[in-house]
Amino acid sequence: MIALFKKNLPVPAVYAFDEDRDHLVGGAWTLQEYIQGCPLNQALRKLSLEDRRDAFRQLSKCMLQVFDVQLPRIGSLEIVGNVEGIRNLSESDLDIRVGKMVTLKGLQNPFIVGPPKDCGPWDDVRDWLKSVAEGCMNYEPDPAKPLPPIDQAYLERVKRIIDETPDILLGGSLSVSGPWARDMWSLHNVIAVIQDEKVIKLHFLDFEGMQSVPAFVRGQAPFLPGVPDEWLKLLLDFLLEHPGFRHAYEQGRTARHLLNLAENADIPGGGDARIKAFLDGEWDDEATLAG
């Protein structure tokens, strides 16, 4: 979807889409551009230290290119209207908007029987955070396997903290939404084009479950599975050269903690300790993102 919305990003072109209403394939499918190259996690093993450093520099530039994409609200991109039968969607004039948030979180649970209660979209950061705290993005569980009841008094305390958090910590450029997917930067999803034993271009695949979320969420330090800490530190240093990312990273820490607090509002017990840790600023700087 991001390839159709922002056509200058290094992602595959999309030629066709089919919902598979006749059940010939087994699910909705797309026909996309074939990208030559190899996964970056494989390419890095063959590079010198200097060329590996340059590859991470290129990776940071692509990440920042996506970070700079601005979307009008919190949710996920969707196409308005029917696209079946259209050839070469990437060159078509499509009506794309931010609609309900796509969520993949919890799909491995065998007791899911229904969709989430409320998938948005949201125009206001606080409304989204309170929706996360209320578990609106959680899939409907099997009545035979009920979840533990939510402590309503604790939930109201979390929502009150959300309301009382100063605008300076949630608003302004920190609240500007943009694209994010849980594993969008995993190196096996990054295709490297190699020439003369150097990475000359990168492409990104698999933005499955992409969401539009505030900059304070997207301004996290990158965590890439299988990448050593020293290379993650180098990648973060490259990202922090961008003033907008630096601001989201440094000034968005409290908001990320608040999202973390909201995500854990339905966990039985330990609520007082979680709130105290939040108020004392003792949380790890991470937000797992509901959905």
TrEMBL record:
<dbReference type="InterPro" id="IPR051678">
    <property type="entry name" value="AGP_Transferase"/>
</dbReference>
<protein>
    <recommendedName>
        <fullName>Aminoglycoside phosphotransferase domain-containing protein</fullName>
    </recommendedName>
</protein>
<dbReference type="InterPro" id="IPR011009">
    <property type="entry name" value="Kinase-like_dom_sf"/>
</dbReference>
